[in-house]
Design a protein that fits this description.
The protein is α/β, with parallel strands linked by helices. Helix content is about 45%, strand content about 15%. The strands form two sheets. Strands 7-8-6-9-10-11 form a six-stranded mixed beta sheet, sandwiched between helices. InterPro entries: CheY-like_superfamily, Diguanylate_Cyclase, GGDEF_dom, Nucleotide_cyclase, Rev_trsase/Diguanyl_cyclase, Sig_transdc_resp-reg_receiver.
């Protein structure tokens, strides 16, 4: 920050007498400040609103609206700020000074204005301006830091995807929207097959690299604005797809599986598989009043378990009913042979 004495103020000088404005304006410029002039209260308010000066020197007595009226309008124009207003007046009574302060003024300069007093008042304004700029700078830095912290709190540091907290927030939003608009909502829970064996064989650093590459792929496949890829935890990921039907979810899953195969990430220990594969469980429903985040995750988890039990490297999907009373899908109670909506690939 510059030294207080080096701060150049932008001063709005308001006086209906041209000669008074010329004299005071010359003194202000000689002190190193910029001067904007207005000859009446209405012009003063308009200039203040458009230029936002650092200080206002304003005559009280003017034709039409006076300086007190202008001060009130200025205060209304800056509800979150405070620009110093110094009245210029020949009135010296206590009542006149009190009225000016009540209308929004900060101080009085009595006419004729003493150059020494004017210089002292302006130095005080420079100090106020310096403090205001420091406060503004610190406030901006704090806002930026808070925004960064907010982003960090909702994103996984390893993969850059939305984390579990961010997923819960979005799931709640999308669940409410889908319920209100009677639209389908798809949730896919997937994980890297045999990832523990991958870590045990290749090491955790290489395992992190694998997760980062899979996360990048998942993020790239979520192309619609409301689609979301999130890291659920460990090697598990969630794909949230609002407005996606059962058939659309299966089409996406098949494409994702094909892309993972094309990625061809080597897997050092994968039960005969030479490359990294994914298994996933899909659930799609039009939510009703009983549908919860927990029920969606439970159904997707049951479908994922089925995909794992059937040999991995596949996605398993079963249609959920909108009028489900519990929203739960227990694997032990799910008869795959009788379900006409089951799809395995």
């Amino acid at each position: 920050m510059p030294a207080v004495a080096d701060i150049r103020l932008k001063v709005l000088l308001v006086d209906d007498q041209l000669s008074h404005r010329a004299a005071l304006g010359a003194e202000l410029q000689a002190m190193g400040h910029d001067v904007v002039e207005a000859g009446n209260a209405e012009d003063a308010v308009a200039l203040f609103t458009s230029l936002r000066p650092d200080a206002v020197l304003m005559d009280v007595e003017m034709p039409g609206h006076n300086g007190h009226w202008a001060a009130q309008q200025i205060r209304r124009a800056e509800p979150e700020g405070w620009t110093p207003i110094l009245f210029l007046s020949g009135r010296v009574s206590d009542a006149d000074l009190a009225e000016g302060i009540e209308c929004g003024g900060d101080d009085y300069l009595f006419k004729p204005v003493s150059p020494v007093v004017l210089a002292a008042k302006l130095r005080a304004m420079q100090r106020l301006c310096s403090l205001h700029r420091q406060l503004t700078s610190l406030t901006d830095q704090l806002r930026a830091s808070n925004a960064d912290l907010q982003i960090q709190s909702l994103h996984d540091p390893l993969t850059g995807l939305t984390n579990r907290r961010g997923l819960d927030i979005r799931l709640d939003e999308e669940l409410r929207t889908a319920r209100r608009e009677r639209q389908p909502l798809t949730l896919i829970l997937c994980d890297v097959d045999n990832f523990k064996a991958y870590n045990d064989t290749a090491g955790h650093l290489q395992g992190d690299q694998c997760l980062m590459r899979i996360a990048q792929l998942l993020g790239e496949t979520c192309r619609r604005p409301r689609d979301l890829a999130a890291r659920f935890g460990g090697e598990e990921f969630v794909i949230l797809m609002p407005g996606t039907s059962h058939s659309g979810a299966m089409f996406y899953a098949k494409g994702l599986q094909r892309m993972v195969h094309q990625l061809a990430l080597p897997h050092p220990a994968s039960d005969g598989k030479t490359c990294v594969t994914l298994s996933g469980g899909i659930t799609t429903c039009v939510p009703d009043g009983t549908t919860t985040i927990e029920s969606l995750l439970s159904r997707a988890d049951a479908a994922l378990y089925t995909a794992k039990s059937l040999g991995r490297d596949r996605f398993f999907c079963f249609e959920t009913q909108a009028d489900s009373s519990t929203g739960q899908a227990e694997l032990a109670n799910y008869d795959r042979e009788k379900s006409s909506t089951a799809t395995l690939f």
